[in-house]
Amino acid sequence: MRPNRSSLFVVAAAAALLAAGCAGQKEPATKAVADVEASIATLREDASKYAATELQSADAALASLKANLEKGDYKAILAGAPALVSQVDALRKTVTDKKAEAEAALEAAKGRWGEVSTDLPKMVEAIQGRLDILTKSRKLPKGLDKATLDSAVASFDSMKSAWGEATSAATSGNFVEAMAKADEIKAKGTEVMAALGMTKG
Amino acid sequence: MADAEQDPKPATDNPYAQHYVVKKGDTLSKIAEEFYGDKMLYTKIFEANTDVLKDPDRIRPGQKLRIP
Lengths: 201, 68
Prior knowledge:
The complex is a heterodimer of chains A (201) and B (68). Chain A is mainly alpha-helical and 201 residues long. Chain A folds into two domains: 96 residues; 91 residues, no CATH class. In chain A, 87% of the residues lie in helices and 0% in strands. Chain A has five helices and no strands. By secondary structure, chain B is an alpha+beta fold. Chain B contains two helices and two strands; from the N terminus they run E-H-H-E. In chain B, helix 1 packs across helix 2. Chain B has a single domain, classed as LysM domain (Membrane-bound Lytic Murein Transglycosylase D, Chain A, Roll). In chain B, strands 1-2 form a two-stranded antiparallel sheet. The longest helix of chain B is centred in the middle third of the chain and has 9 residues. Chains A and B meet through helix 3 of A and helix 1 of B.
């Protein structure tokens, strides 16, 4: 059946309306993608540090919207953008919270480092002094055998090496890592002192 | 002698330093044997306590000695 003039007009009008509709969605869709991309960009540096998984997920959602933009599926973009905006808001909150936690931990570690950096060298000095004497002793005191002494010497060597790493971390401003190492060193030092029969005071 | 009653010098104030309070009948050799297993290492204790000990053969009960 050959289409008559009026049906051709309807099809043409529908096509024109559809095109107009699509054209009307292109601008807000493009803007939505650009806005979300800009929001993610402002968070990227901190997010990669504090919320890498959430950032990856937001990037994947953004990539999907961009793919729709290339396909001209503006409707899908306008439908999907609000969810991504919410996702980016949640990402922003996570980053803010985790950054605040990390800064608080850094401040606390910095404060503790001041005390520990004075205290631990004294522990090292006390153990070093005792080991220097015991390794020269012709006999060992009651309760200390050669194997225990050798083990204490090895532990003490690893303490000194870890202390070097801790001070390097602190010098670089990484007080959290420095304090983690310092806590391990102190625990090991306490064990060594006990093994050598050294009581405080 | 007043200085013989003093605690070890605060210049080496180390919270991890070990101390020993002299008892009746103690000698530096005996203390060295207890802590180091070797009487001959009494000199280490004497050297660490020259602020309160003038003679390694003269220690008195109640004296607080630093044990390095």
